[in-house]
Specification:
With 495 residues, the protein is mainly beta. The protein has one domain: Methylamine Dehydrogenase, Chain H, CATH 2.130.10. The protein contains 4 helices and 33 strands. Strands 2, 28, 29, 30, 31 and 32 form a 6-stranded antiparallel sheet that branches. A 5-stranded antiparallel sheet has the order 1-5-4-3-33. It has a 4-stranded antiparallel sheet with strand order 6-7-8-9, with no helix packed on it. β10 and β11 form a beta hairpin. The radius of gyration is 21 Å and the shape is globular. The N and C termini lie far apart (50 Å). It comes from Novosphingobium mangrovi. This is Dioxygenase. Its EC number is 1.13.11.-. Its cofactor is Fe(2+). It holds the Pfam family RPE65.
Amino acid sequence: MTQFPQTIHFTGTNTPIGVEWSARNLDVIGTIPEEIDGAFFRAVPDPALAPMFEDEVALSADGMVAKFDIRGGTVDYAIKYVETERYLLEKEARTALFGRYRNPYTDDPSVAGKDRTVANTTPVWHGGRLLMTKEDGLGYEVDPETLETIGRFDYYGALKSETFTAHPRIDPETGEMFFFGYEAGGLASLDVAYGIADKDGNLISEQWFKQPYCSTIHDFTITEKYAVFPIFPTTADLDRLKAGGAHWAHQQDLESWVGIMPRYGKVEDMRWFKGPKGVSAFHFLNAYDDGDLVHLDVCLSDTCAFGFMREAGGVERGQQSIQGGMTRWTFDMSKPGEEFESRVIGPPGDMPRIPDASQGRMHRKGWYLTINPEGGPPVPGGPVGVSFNMLVQIEPGNGRIEAMPLEPGMAINEPVHVPSSDPEKDGWLLMVVDRQTGENSFDSELWVVEADAVAKGPIARVPMPLPMRAQVHGWWVSREQLDKAKARKAQGLAA
Protein backbone atom coordinates (compact mmCIF):
# COMPACT_ATOMS: atom_id res chain seq x y z
CA MET A 1 0.00 0.00 0.00
CA THR A 2 1.13 3.58 -0.66
CA GLN A 3 -1.38 5.25 1.66
CA PHE A 4 -2.64 4.49 5.15
CA PRO A 5 -6.01 2.70 5.29
CA GLN A 6 -8.94 4.81 6.48
CA THR A 7 -9.82 2.40 9.28
CA ILE A 8 -10.01 2.99 13.04
CA HIS A 9 -6.43 1.72 13.31
CA PHE A 10 -5.18 4.73 11.30
CA THR A 11 -7.72 7.47 12.12
CA GLY A 12 -8.85 9.34 15.23
CA THR A 13 -6.09 9.38 17.85
CA ASN A 14 -4.48 6.60 15.79
CA THR A 15 -3.83 9.00 12.89
CA PRO A 16 -0.16 8.48 11.87
CA ILE A 17 2.22 11.33 12.68
CA GLY A 18 5.68 9.82 12.15
CA VAL A 19 7.71 12.84 13.26
CA GLU A 20 10.75 12.73 15.53
CA TRP A 21 11.07 16.03 17.35
CA SER A 22 12.13 17.73 20.56
CA ALA A 23 11.43 20.99 22.37
CA ARG A 24 12.74 22.72 25.48
CA ASN A 25 10.90 24.82 28.03
CA LEU A 26 7.37 24.05 26.95
CA ASP A 27 4.69 26.44 28.19
CA VAL A 28 3.25 25.50 31.59
CA ILE A 29 -0.19 26.64 32.70
CA GLY A 30 -0.31 26.50 36.49
CA THR A 31 2.57 25.29 38.64
CA ILE A 32 4.31 21.92 38.59
CA PRO A 33 5.46 21.01 42.12
CA GLU A 34 9.25 21.04 42.56
CA GLU A 35 9.07 17.49 43.93
CA ILE A 36 8.10 16.20 40.48
CA ASP A 37 11.65 15.74 39.24
CA GLY A 38 12.43 13.08 36.66
CA ALA A 39 11.23 11.65 33.37
CA PHE A 40 7.87 10.39 32.17
CA PHE A 41 8.62 7.88 29.40
CA ARG A 42 5.83 6.85 27.01
CA ALA A 43 5.49 4.05 24.44
CA VAL A 44 3.79 5.46 21.34
CA PRO A 45 2.95 3.18 18.37
CA ASP A 46 3.24 5.21 15.17
CA PRO A 47 3.71 3.55 11.75
CA ALA A 48 6.60 4.98 9.76
CA LEU A 49 5.23 3.50 6.51
CA ALA A 50 1.87 2.44 5.13
CA PRO A 51 1.18 -1.23 5.92
CA MET A 52 1.31 -4.14 3.52
CA PHE A 53 -2.37 -5.03 4.08
CA GLU A 54 -5.58 -3.00 4.37
CA ASP A 55 -6.64 -4.84 7.54
CA GLU A 56 -3.50 -4.07 9.56
CA VAL A 57 -4.05 -3.05 13.20
CA ALA A 58 -2.73 -0.30 15.45
CA LEU A 59 -0.79 -2.78 17.58
CA SER A 60 1.62 -3.39 14.65
CA ALA A 61 2.76 0.23 14.45
CA ASP A 62 6.45 1.04 14.87
CA GLY A 63 7.40 1.91 18.43
CA MET A 64 8.39 5.42 19.39
CA VAL A 65 9.83 6.29 22.79
CA ALA A 66 8.74 9.66 24.15
CA LYS A 67 10.10 11.54 27.16
CA PHE A 68 8.78 14.38 29.26
CA ASP A 69 11.80 15.63 31.22
CA ILE A 70 10.54 17.60 34.23
CA ARG A 71 12.73 19.58 36.64
CA GLY A 72 12.28 22.80 38.59
CA GLY A 73 8.77 23.22 37.23
CA THR A 74 10.00 23.20 33.61
CA VAL A 75 9.26 20.62 30.91
CA ASP A 76 11.29 19.42 27.93
CA TYR A 77 10.02 16.86 25.44
CA ALA A 78 11.50 14.50 22.86
CA ILE A 79 10.29 11.55 20.80
CA LYS A 80 12.23 9.10 18.61
CA TYR A 81 11.63 5.85 16.79
CA VAL A 82 12.97 2.71 18.43
CA GLU A 83 15.39 1.41 15.81
CA THR A 84 14.38 -2.23 15.87
CA GLU A 85 15.67 -4.57 13.20
CA ARG A 86 12.25 -4.38 11.57
CA TYR A 87 12.18 -0.58 11.56
CA LEU A 88 15.65 -0.32 10.03
CA LEU A 89 14.93 -2.89 7.30
CA GLU A 90 11.76 -1.11 6.23
CA LYS A 91 13.40 2.31 6.50
CA GLU A 92 16.10 1.16 4.09
CA ALA A 93 13.56 -0.38 1.70
CA ARG A 94 11.16 2.60 2.00
CA THR A 95 8.24 0.18 1.98
CA ALA A 96 6.53 -2.31 4.29
CA LEU A 97 8.23 -5.72 4.33
CA PHE A 98 6.48 -7.27 7.32
CA GLY A 99 2.91 -8.48 6.88
CA ARG A 100 -0.03 -9.00 9.18
CA TYR A 101 0.05 -8.50 12.94
CA ARG A 102 2.30 -11.16 14.49
CA ASN A 103 2.15 -13.45 11.46
CA PRO A 104 5.58 -14.03 9.82
CA TYR A 105 3.98 -16.24 7.15
CA THR A 106 2.62 -13.06 5.52
CA ASP A 107 6.01 -11.29 5.32
CA ASP A 108 8.05 -10.48 2.25
CA PRO A 109 10.52 -13.37 1.71
CA SER A 110 13.45 -10.96 2.05
CA VAL A 111 12.85 -10.63 5.81
CA ALA A 112 12.35 -14.30 6.64
CA GLY A 113 13.79 -15.03 10.07
CA LYS A 114 14.28 -11.37 10.96
CA ASP A 115 13.13 -9.83 14.25
CA ARG A 116 9.49 -8.74 13.82
CA THR A 117 8.95 -6.90 17.12
CA VAL A 118 8.19 -3.18 16.99
CA ALA A 119 8.92 -2.52 20.71
CA ASN A 120 5.86 -0.29 20.99
CA THR A 121 4.06 -1.24 24.22
CA THR A 122 5.85 -0.37 27.49
CA PRO A 123 8.99 1.51 28.53
CA VAL A 124 10.52 -0.52 31.38
CA TRP A 125 13.09 0.88 33.80
CA HIS A 126 15.17 -1.54 35.85
CA GLY A 127 18.79 -1.81 36.99
CA GLY A 128 19.58 1.61 35.51
CA ARG A 129 18.45 0.47 32.07
CA LEU A 130 15.52 1.62 29.89
CA LEU A 131 13.93 -1.06 27.72
CA MET A 132 11.22 -0.58 25.11
CA THR A 133 9.14 -3.75 25.07
CA LYS A 134 6.48 -5.62 23.16
CA GLU A 135 5.65 -9.16 24.19
CA ASP A 136 6.28 -10.78 20.78
CA GLY A 137 10.06 -10.38 21.12
CA LEU A 138 12.89 -9.20 23.35
CA GLY A 139 13.13 -5.66 24.65
CA TYR A 140 15.28 -3.01 22.98
CA GLU A 141 17.55 -0.94 25.21
CA VAL A 142 17.28 2.82 24.73
CA ASP A 143 19.56 5.55 26.07
CA PRO A 144 17.40 7.41 28.64
CA GLU A 145 19.15 10.73 27.90
CA THR A 146 19.30 10.80 24.12
CA LEU A 147 16.57 8.21 23.32
CA GLU A 148 18.99 6.62 20.86
CA THR A 149 18.51 2.87 20.43
CA ILE A 150 21.33 0.77 21.90
CA GLY A 151 20.05 -2.62 20.74
CA ARG A 152 18.14 -5.79 21.55
CA PHE A 153 18.67 -6.91 25.15
CA ASP A 154 18.89 -10.57 26.26
CA TYR A 155 20.81 -10.23 29.54
CA TYR A 156 24.11 -10.75 27.69
CA GLY A 157 22.94 -14.05 26.26
CA ALA A 158 21.68 -15.45 29.58
CA LEU A 159 17.95 -15.20 28.73
CA LYS A 160 16.80 -18.16 26.64
CA SER A 161 13.19 -17.06 26.12
CA GLU A 162 12.46 -15.62 22.68
CA THR A 163 10.03 -13.13 24.23
CA PHE A 164 9.86 -10.64 27.12
CA THR A 165 6.68 -9.31 28.69
CA ALA A 166 5.46 -5.74 28.42
CA HIS A 167 4.37 -5.96 32.09
CA PRO A 168 7.14 -6.97 34.49
CA ARG A 169 6.61 -6.38 38.21
CA ILE A 170 9.27 -4.83 40.46
CA ASP A 171 9.32 -5.57 44.18
CA PRO A 172 9.56 -2.23 46.04
CA GLU A 173 11.70 -3.66 48.86
CA THR A 174 14.13 -6.02 47.12
CA GLY A 175 14.31 -4.11 43.82
CA GLU A 176 14.05 -7.42 41.95
CA MET A 177 12.16 -7.55 38.66
CA PHE A 178 9.83 -10.49 38.03
CA PHE A 179 8.89 -11.06 34.40
CA PHE A 180 7.83 -13.67 31.88
CA GLY A 181 7.66 -14.42 28.19
CA TYR A 182 4.92 -16.44 26.52
CA GLU A 183 5.41 -18.25 23.21
CA ALA A 184 8.90 -18.40 24.71
CA GLY A 185 9.87 -21.39 22.60
CA GLY A 186 8.48 -20.15 19.32
CA LEU A 187 5.34 -19.09 17.49
CA ALA A 188 2.11 -20.49 19.03
CA SER A 189 4.05 -22.67 21.48
CA LEU A 190 2.68 -23.35 24.96
CA ASP A 191 6.01 -22.37 26.53
CA VAL A 192 6.10 -19.68 29.21
CA ALA A 193 9.41 -18.51 30.68
CA TYR A 194 9.33 -17.06 34.21
CA GLY A 195 12.34 -14.93 35.05
CA ILE A 196 13.79 -12.93 37.93
CA ALA A 197 16.43 -10.19 37.66
CA ASP A 198 18.16 -8.81 40.74
CA LYS A 199 18.10 -5.11 41.67
CA ASP A 200 21.16 -4.43 39.50
CA GLY A 201 19.55 -5.96 36.43
CA ASN A 202 21.31 -9.34 36.41
CA LEU A 203 19.28 -12.41 35.42
CA ILE A 204 19.25 -14.79 38.40
CA SER A 205 16.51 -17.23 37.44
CA GLU A 206 14.65 -18.50 34.36
CA GLN A 207 12.18 -21.39 34.51
CA TRP A 208 9.82 -22.67 31.83
CA PHE A 209 6.34 -24.16 32.09
CA LYS A 210 3.42 -24.96 29.78
CA GLN A 211 0.18 -22.98 29.81
CA PRO A 212 -3.17 -24.79 29.30
CA TYR A 213 -3.49 -23.36 25.77
CA CYS A 214 -1.59 -20.72 23.81
CA SER A 215 -3.15 -17.50 25.10
CA THR A 216 -2.15 -13.87 25.03
CA ILE A 217 -0.70 -13.48 28.54
CA HIS A 218 -0.32 -9.72 28.43
CA ASP A 219 0.10 -9.10 32.17
CA PHE A 220 0.68 -10.95 35.44
CA THR A 221 1.18 -10.07 39.11
CA ILE A 222 3.28 -10.87 42.14
CA THR A 223 2.59 -10.91 45.86
CA GLU A 224 5.16 -11.21 48.62
CA LYS A 225 4.81 -15.00 48.40
CA TYR A 226 3.50 -15.83 44.92
CA ALA A 227 3.68 -15.23 41.19
CA VAL A 228 0.20 -15.17 39.61
CA PHE A 229 -0.40 -16.00 35.91
CA PRO A 230 -3.98 -15.40 34.66
CA ILE A 231 -4.81 -17.12 31.35
CA PHE A 232 -7.72 -15.95 29.16
CA PRO A 233 -9.19 -17.64 26.06
CA THR A 234 -7.81 -15.45 23.29
CA THR A 235 -5.74 -18.09 21.56
CA ALA A 236 -3.14 -18.64 18.83
CA ASP A 237 -3.10 -21.50 16.31
CA LEU A 238 -0.11 -22.38 14.14
CA ASP A 239 -2.17 -23.79 11.27
CA ARG A 240 -4.24 -20.60 11.16
CA LEU A 241 -1.05 -18.54 11.02
CA LYS A 242 0.40 -20.67 8.22
CA ALA A 243 -2.79 -20.06 6.24
CA GLY A 244 -2.21 -16.29 6.56
CA GLY A 245 -4.83 -15.83 9.26
CA ALA A 246 -5.01 -13.95 12.54
CA HIS A 247 -2.59 -14.60 15.36
CA TRP A 248 -5.31 -14.23 18.00
CA ALA A 249 -8.92 -15.44 18.00
CA HIS A 250 -11.14 -15.17 21.07
CA GLN A 251 -12.92 -18.38 22.10
CA GLN A 252 -16.03 -17.40 24.04
CA ASP A 253 -16.82 -20.97 25.18
CA LEU A 254 -13.36 -21.74 26.59
CA GLU A 255 -12.55 -21.54 30.32
CA SER A 256 -10.07 -19.09 31.77
CA TRP A 257 -7.35 -20.23 34.18
CA VAL A 258 -5.12 -18.76 36.89
CA GLY A 259 -1.78 -20.36 37.70
CA ILE A 260 -0.23 -19.53 41.10
CA MET A 261 3.25 -20.60 42.21
CA PRO A 262 5.68 -19.55 44.98
CA ARG A 263 7.49 -16.59 43.49
CA TYR A 264 10.89 -18.01 44.46
CA GLY A 265 9.73 -21.63 44.02
CA LYS A 266 9.71 -24.14 41.21
CA VAL A 267 7.29 -24.07 38.28
CA GLU A 268 6.44 -27.67 39.18
CA ASP A 269 4.66 -26.19 42.22
CA MET A 270 2.24 -24.25 39.99
CA ARG A 271 -1.36 -24.65 41.12
CA TRP A 272 -4.15 -24.06 38.57
CA PHE A 273 -7.57 -22.54 39.29
CA LYS A 274 -10.39 -22.71 36.71
CA GLY A 275 -12.17 -19.45 35.89
CA PRO A 276 -15.32 -18.48 33.98
CA LYS A 277 -15.69 -19.06 30.26
CA GLY A 278 -15.10 -16.35 27.68
CA VAL A 279 -13.96 -13.60 30.03
CA SER A 280 -10.94 -11.44 29.31
CA ALA A 281 -8.51 -9.10 31.04
CA PHE A 282 -5.34 -7.50 29.75
CA HIS A 283 -4.31 -5.67 32.92
CA PHE A 284 -4.40 -6.12 36.69
CA LEU A 285 -4.42 -3.43 39.35
CA ASN A 286 -2.43 -5.48 41.87
CA ALA A 287 -2.32 -8.68 43.93
CA TYR A 288 -1.43 -9.27 47.56
CA ASP A 289 -1.39 -11.90 50.33
CA ASP A 290 -3.88 -11.97 53.18
CA GLY A 291 -2.89 -14.95 55.31
CA ASP A 292 -3.68 -18.01 53.19
CA LEU A 293 -5.64 -15.85 50.75
CA VAL A 294 -4.37 -14.28 47.54
CA HIS A 295 -6.37 -11.29 46.30
CA LEU A 296 -6.10 -10.32 42.61
CA ASP A 297 -7.80 -7.17 41.28
CA VAL A 298 -8.69 -7.69 37.63
CA CYS A 299 -9.85 -5.27 34.89
CA LEU A 300 -12.36 -7.90 33.80
CA SER A 301 -14.71 -7.90 30.80
CA ASP A 302 -17.13 -10.54 29.56
CA THR A 303 -15.33 -10.87 26.21
CA CYS A 304 -12.13 -9.68 24.55
CA ALA A 305 -11.82 -5.89 24.26
CA PHE A 306 -10.09 -6.01 20.86
CA GLY A 307 -12.59 -6.15 18.02
CA PHE A 308 -10.25 -7.82 15.53
CA MET A 309 -9.54 -10.61 18.04
CA ARG A 310 -13.26 -11.15 18.68
CA GLU A 311 -14.07 -11.22 14.98
CA ALA A 312 -11.33 -13.78 14.26
CA GLY A 313 -13.06 -16.06 16.78
CA GLY A 314 -16.53 -15.49 15.35
CA VAL A 315 -17.66 -13.33 18.29
CA GLU A 316 -19.96 -10.65 16.85
CA ARG A 317 -20.17 -8.05 19.62
CA GLY A 318 -20.11 -4.27 19.36
CA GLN A 319 -17.64 -2.42 21.56
CA GLN A 320 -20.47 -0.68 23.40
CA SER A 321 -22.02 -4.02 24.42
CA ILE A 322 -19.02 -5.24 26.43
CA GLN A 323 -19.77 -5.64 30.14
CA GLY A 324 -17.42 -5.92 33.09
CA GLY A 325 -15.95 -4.24 36.13
CA MET A 326 -12.97 -4.01 38.40
CA THR A 327 -13.22 -7.46 39.95
CA ARG A 328 -11.49 -9.03 42.94
CA TRP A 329 -10.63 -12.70 42.58
CA THR A 330 -9.71 -14.38 45.87
CA PHE A 331 -7.85 -17.69 46.05
CA ASP A 332 -7.63 -19.73 49.26
CA MET A 333 -4.26 -21.46 49.05
CA SER A 334 -5.05 -23.60 52.12
CA LYS A 335 -7.93 -25.40 50.40
CA PRO A 336 -7.80 -27.95 47.58
CA GLY A 337 -9.72 -27.61 44.34
CA GLU A 338 -9.95 -25.31 41.32
CA GLU A 339 -12.57 -22.82 42.55
CA PHE A 340 -12.12 -19.24 43.77
CA GLU A 341 -14.31 -16.31 44.85
CA SER A 342 -15.19 -13.33 42.67
CA ARG A 343 -16.81 -9.96 43.43
CA VAL A 344 -17.03 -6.62 41.62
CA ILE A 345 -15.34 -3.77 43.49
CA GLY A 346 -15.50 -0.96 40.93
CA PRO A 347 -16.83 0.22 37.55
CA PRO A 348 -15.45 -1.22 34.30
CA GLY A 349 -12.22 0.19 32.98
CA ASP A 350 -8.57 -0.46 32.21
CA MET A 351 -5.04 0.97 32.30
CA PRO A 352 -4.73 0.64 36.10
CA ARG A 353 -2.05 2.21 38.28
CA ILE A 354 -0.99 1.92 41.93
CA PRO A 355 1.94 3.53 43.75
CA ASP A 356 5.10 1.55 43.04
CA ALA A 357 5.58 1.14 46.80
CA SER A 358 2.34 -0.90 46.95
CA GLN A 359 3.40 -3.46 44.35
CA GLY A 360 2.53 -6.93 45.66
CA ARG A 361 1.27 -5.44 48.94
CA MET A 362 -2.21 -4.41 50.09
CA HIS A 363 -3.00 -1.23 48.18
CA ARG A 364 -4.97 1.54 49.82
CA LYS A 365 -5.71 3.32 46.54
CA GLY A 366 -5.57 2.72 42.84
CA TRP A 367 -6.42 4.60 39.68
CA TYR A 368 -7.64 3.50 36.27
CA LEU A 369 -9.45 4.76 33.19
CA THR A 370 -13.05 4.26 32.15
CA ILE A 371 -15.70 5.60 29.79
CA ASN A 372 -18.16 8.08 31.27
CA PRO A 373 -21.66 7.12 30.05
CA GLU A 374 -22.65 10.79 30.35
CA GLY A 375 -19.57 12.13 28.59
CA GLY A 376 -20.84 11.98 25.03
CA PRO A 377 -19.57 9.67 22.26
CA PRO A 378 -16.05 8.39 23.03
CA VAL A 379 -13.25 9.80 20.92
CA PRO A 380 -12.26 7.26 18.23
CA GLY A 381 -8.78 5.76 18.42
CA GLY A 382 -6.46 4.08 20.87
CA PRO A 383 -5.56 0.37 20.98
CA VAL A 384 -9.19 -0.87 21.07
CA GLY A 385 -10.70 1.81 18.81
CA VAL A 386 -12.46 3.93 21.44
CA SER A 387 -10.77 6.18 23.97
CA PHE A 388 -11.29 6.57 27.70
CA ASN A 389 -12.70 9.85 28.97
CA MET A 390 -12.70 9.54 32.77
CA LEU A 391 -10.12 8.84 35.48
CA VAL A 392 -11.33 6.75 38.43
CA GLN A 393 -9.80 6.63 41.92
CA ILE A 394 -10.73 3.52 43.90
CA GLU A 395 -10.20 2.60 47.56
CA PRO A 396 -10.93 -1.13 47.79
CA GLY A 397 -10.81 -1.18 51.60
CA ASN A 398 -13.80 1.09 52.09
CA GLY A 399 -15.45 1.08 48.65
CA ARG A 400 -14.94 4.81 48.11
CA ILE A 401 -14.74 5.90 44.46
CA GLU A 402 -13.88 9.34 43.09
CA ALA A 403 -13.72 10.38 39.44
CA MET A 404 -12.32 13.02 37.09
CA PRO A 405 -14.62 13.13 34.04
CA LEU A 406 -13.48 14.94 30.92
CA GLU A 407 -15.54 17.20 28.69
CA PRO A 408 -17.14 15.72 25.56
CA GLY A 409 -14.65 15.31 22.73
CA MET A 410 -11.73 14.61 25.05
CA ALA A 411 -9.65 11.47 25.64
CA ILE A 412 -7.23 10.42 28.35
CA ASN A 413 -4.14 8.21 28.17
CA GLU A 414 -2.84 5.91 30.91
CA PRO A 415 -1.42 7.85 33.88
CA VAL A 416 1.84 7.32 35.73
CA HIS A 417 2.21 7.87 39.47
CA VAL A 418 4.81 10.17 41.03
CA PRO A 419 5.30 9.64 44.79
CA SER A 420 5.58 12.41 47.36
CA SER A 421 8.08 12.54 50.23
CA ASP A 422 5.21 13.71 52.45
CA PRO A 423 3.59 10.58 53.98
CA GLU A 424 0.32 12.51 54.28
CA LYS A 425 0.10 12.92 50.49
CA ASP A 426 -0.51 10.40 47.72
CA GLY A 427 1.69 12.22 45.20
CA TRP A 428 0.64 13.05 41.67
CA LEU A 429 -0.58 11.51 38.44
CA LEU A 430 0.84 12.54 35.06
CA MET A 431 -1.14 11.85 31.89
CA VAL A 432 -1.59 13.07 28.33
CA VAL A 433 -5.08 14.33 27.48
CA ASP A 434 -6.34 14.90 23.92
CA ARG A 435 -9.08 17.24 22.71
CA GLN A 436 -10.65 16.60 19.30
CA THR A 437 -10.52 19.65 17.03
CA GLY A 438 -11.49 18.01 13.72
CA GLU A 439 -12.30 14.61 12.27
CA ASN A 440 -8.71 13.41 12.65
CA SER A 441 -7.07 16.34 14.41
CA PHE A 442 -6.39 16.82 18.11
CA ASP A 443 -4.75 19.17 20.57
CA SER A 444 -2.82 17.44 23.33
CA GLU A 445 -1.69 18.45 26.81
CA LEU A 446 0.30 16.93 29.65
CA TRP A 447 -1.77 17.12 32.84
CA VAL A 448 -0.55 17.07 36.43
CA VAL A 449 -3.24 15.86 38.86
CA GLU A 450 -3.08 15.47 42.64
CA ALA A 451 -3.40 11.74 43.26
CA ASP A 452 -5.50 12.21 46.41
CA ALA A 453 -7.87 14.73 44.83
CA VAL A 454 -8.52 13.68 41.25
CA ALA A 455 -11.94 15.35 41.12
CA LYS A 456 -10.20 18.75 41.28
CA GLY A 457 -8.77 18.20 37.83
CA PRO A 458 -5.28 19.31 36.79
CA ILE A 459 -3.16 21.65 38.88
CA ALA A 460 -0.87 22.19 35.87
CA ARG A 461 -1.20 21.73 32.11
CA VAL A 462 1.46 21.66 29.40
CA PRO A 463 0.02 22.33 25.90
CA MET A 464 1.91 20.44 23.21
CA PRO A 465 2.93 22.35 20.06
CA LEU A 466 2.46 19.33 17.76
CA PRO A 467 -0.14 16.54 17.61
CA MET A 468 0.33 13.45 19.78
CA ARG A 469 -0.59 9.92 18.79
CA ALA A 470 -2.23 7.69 21.44
CA GLN A 471 0.23 5.98 23.79
CA VAL A 472 -0.03 2.46 25.15
CA HIS A 473 1.86 2.48 28.48
CA GLY A 474 4.21 4.77 30.39
CA TRP A 475 6.80 4.70 33.18
CA TRP A 476 7.99 7.32 35.70
CA VAL A 477 11.74 7.46 36.52
CA SER A 478 12.96 9.78 39.27
CA ARG A 479 15.89 12.17 38.84
CA GLU A 480 17.79 10.19 41.46
CA GLN A 481 17.41 7.01 39.40
CA LEU A 482 18.41 8.79 36.21
CA ASP A 483 21.49 10.37 37.83
CA LYS A 484 22.62 7.05 39.31
CA ALA A 485 22.35 5.38 35.90
CA LYS A 486 24.29 8.24 34.30
CA ALA A 487 27.05 7.96 36.90
CA ARG A 488 27.30 4.18 36.41
CA LYS A 489 27.53 4.66 32.68
CA ALA A 490 30.32 7.24 33.07
CA GLN A 491 32.26 4.91 35.38
CA GLY A 492 31.91 2.10 32.90
CA LEU A 493 33.21 4.24 30.05
CA ALA A 494 36.10 5.40 32.21
CA ALA A 495 37.03 1.82 33.03
